[in-house]
Amino acid sequence: MALLDPIPSPVLDADFAALEWEPLVALVAGFAASTVGREAILSLRPSTDEDWIARQHQLTGEVRLLLQEQVSIPLGGLFDPTQHAAKAQIPGAALDANELQGIARLANDVASWQSLLQSPPARLVGKLSGLSSLSVSLTGSLRPLAESIERTIQPDGSLADNASPELGRIRREQDRQQRQIEESLRAALRKLSADGATQEDLITIRGERFVIPVRAELKRRISGVVHGASSSGQTVYVEPLETIEQNNELVRLIEEEQAEIHRIFVALTRQVGGYAQSLVAGARVLALVDSLQARARFARDYDCVAPAIEPGLLRLEAARHPLLERHFRAIGSRPNTSVVPLTLQLTASDRQLIISGPNTGGKTVTLKTTALLAMMAQAGLPVPAGAASFPVFTGFLADIGDAQSIEAELSTFSAHITNLDRLSRLAGERTLVLLDELGSATDPEEGSALAVAIASHFLTAGAWSLISTHHTSLKVYAANTPGVLNAAAGVDEVTLAPNYQLKLGVPGASAGIQTAERLGLNAAIIAAARERLSSQQVDIARFLDRMHAELTQLEADRKAARAEQYALNQERAKLAREGDVELRNRTRELEAKLASLLKDFEFQMRETVRAIEDRAGQQKISKEAERRILRLRREFQESFNQTVVAHRTGADVGDQNAQPHILKHVAVGDQVRIKSMNKVATVQREVEKDVFEVALGPIKMRVKRDELCEPLPAGESTANQKPDPLAAARRQKNVHVTVTNANTDEMRMEINLIGRTVDEATGELEQYLDRAFMAGLPRVRIIHGHGAGILRRGVREFLKSHPHVATLTEAPQNEGGQGATLVELRQ
Fold first, then answer.
1. Which of 40, 80, 83, 35 is nearest to 60 (CA)?
2. DSSP letters along 288-312, please?
3. DSSP class of residue 200?
4. What kind and span of H or E run contains 549?
5. pLDDT tens digits, residue range 246-285?
6. Which helix (H) or strand (E) holds 479?
7. Which residues have a Cβ under 8 Å from the Cβ of 523 and sit 6 or more positions away?
8. What are the residues whose beta carbons fall under 8 Å from the beta carbon of 737, sequence distance 6 or more?
9. Which of 35, 119, 276, 746 to pair with 735, CA 20 to 30 A apart?
10. Threshold 0.70, pTM exceeds
């Protein structure tokens, strides 16, 4: 197919028919959205190019992400446009309406795919690198081509009247001409109806010409051209002479319309030719995308994984044969109709597996499943398994089933030997060989010897091989030969029915007599068969039965141990969670204690800063300020360390004196000081633990215990008090402090300085700010007016360096705009 790239380095030596490759790809192809996508899947073959294999699985994984996000991939218009694109590049060629509409749908799909990659879902941003690089060749947009075709051609395939100005003009003239003809014919009908000459009172069309029906016996009464008769012969269709020229003109217009339509199709085809390369490139990308989405949908429905390519390791976990699973899904209503997952592992040092066990026990399915999944991995198909790893094989060689051929005059044994000879010549270190029922169809002793020799040959050749058998000699060979493993197809110990579970490391019992008994063979025959068994064969069978019983018990013990370990892990996780909860609770307690300490420290620091601001102009007291800050820092550090140590050791649990900065006894009616406001309030009630309602004048508020402290008692000596900022200022030499009447109720929230000079304004403003600060006003407004801006600049420069001013901003329009300044005072 022209749109598809050939498979690089395809595997040439593969028994596709024996391993059911064609039914497998047909199953996957059923998930494709287009014929092109189905053909892409059907043409898949295993490759030995590791880079190509890895890229196919990466791209499939990215499409699976799109499906998980429920993204609709635009593939409804996908087809192979190669022939259309070639025709469109021929001068004067014209594609028909259906072909052009198909081109438009394809162009829309390509454009939509480009848009999807440019703006993927938010959760997929940066996760579609493979699909983006795949589509990097799609440079221009095909949307203009699609819009041009859709604008010209209507859904029913006809051309719109506005497809071209000329087509619109022609169709308008046609309408006008038809109306004139109809008017002429109606006039003739009215005249003839009065004479009873017309058969029906209607106008019809014969051969693209408008005519009227006339009774056959009266046709000579009308001058005109007869254009046929009815099937009964009683009516003839006559074109009156007066409408002949009008009909001729209509026919001419119809011919002009067809010529214009052809011209438009030629123009559209020429436009398609300009996009030919982009169309083919877009279709190539979408063909692969459809193939990928078919694989992704198959993977989703069959619970598949992307296999790993690992040299020297063939590993399957919970693998299932996809065709067998499809079969069981079709008969899913029947009991015990599900695929038993397969688990096995071979390595570079142990690359041959001898599988033994009862008939119908799943030996052949194991061989086919292993080979088919390995082929799927190398063809870029996800594999139905919990996990899978494969080396890259250069050949998949199988001798499975009855190869008898009457035409080639080959018996069953001869056909097997002929095929085995072919396989022995092709086998190498990178081939996978599947041998089913090796050594059968001949004398048991000779077949057994031949089977061991054949198995040894493939082992010496280094081939990876899976061999099913009933021969005891092959089981012994596997047990005694390095590089070879035994495996048993499992059976139920009670019913002796196969359970299709593969047990690695032990041989399986063929249990032919038990199987025959289970399938209902005559009891007398079963008894006679048991009597004919040699004692050695009986001993071997008993040994294998005992070994499988021990393995079953060992597996049960292992499951019990895993369950117990799981319970212990759950209990350990539970204890860890409980410990985490206790740790978080103690951490929150510590954070609360430290937060309380920080609040107290902030209060002390605020008092210190206020004292320093009151003496901002005094250089002499800077050393005292530094000393007080350092002392408070040291006291805080000590309190902090003591709190942390006490909390870690639990020494502060239940100790009322562990946090001395917190007021311990608070009762209704007590006078307390609020640290953040430095105001004295009265306790009204305890709202909840460590939260109190206090009254500050007419205002009531809720505060926490660690925000309260005792008020300074009247008459207490300053030696026992914390330094008062004003008192400290008075004690300094050359510092004179005058306390003015600063009652908050008497203080105005603004001052008007309009009309003052800068010197007058700053002097008056300094006194106002002192009073406002002492009154505890948080915010004031300075009105200075607009004017020439001199007073405004002078006031603001003064405010910037004033110690009471925290911030200043221009007033909003409703408070004066540029004519006023808002000042936040320090607290």
1. 40
2. HHHHHHHHHHHHHHTT-BPPEE-TT
3. S
4. helix 535-614
5. 888 888 888 999 999 999 999 999 999 999 999 999 999 9
6. helix 472-480
7. 517
8. 614, 726, 729, 730
9. 746
10. no
